[in-house]
Amino acid sequence: MSSAQPSATGAPPTPLRLTLRLLLALGVTLSVVGAVCLVVILGVYFTGGEPAPALYAVVLVGIPAGFLLMVAHMVSLSAWSRRARRRRHV
Question: Are 30 and 36 in contact (CB under 8 A)?
């Protein structure tokens, strides 16, 4: 679903929803890039070469940063959901 389309409830996407989507997309992207670099490092080791130092930096930063962004997405989504639920019941 494109970010310009309304959600399943028919409401247009809010800046908060777009931010949550961005957090999740960045988290997944960073984690995947870090995992691919880790596989490349292992492949280079098995072929007897020496991996580039930049690969280590990407792995050491990418995987934890991606994980933290995905956790931030879940925490924000949970808080947003609770607030929305409280507003409906009041």
Answer: no
**Dist. CA 55–CA 7, nearest whole Å:** 39
The 10s digit of each residue's pLDDT in 34-52 is: 999 999 999 999 999 999 9
Q: How far apart are the C-alpha atoms of 15 and 12, rounded to whole Å?
A: 10
Counting beta carbons within 10 angstroms of the beta carbon of residue 77, is it exposed (0 to 12), middle (13 to 18) or buried (19 or more)?
A: middle
Alpha-carbon 70 to chain mean position: 4
d(CA 32, CA 72): 17
| Contact predicate 27/70, CB 8 Å | yes
| Model pLDDT for residues 6-34, shown as the tens digit of each residue | 556 666 778 878 888 998 999 999 999 99
Cα–Cα dist 64/18, whole Å = 22
Q: Which amino acid is present at 9?
A: T
Q: If you search the block for the tokens 């777009």, which residue do you land on?
A: 18
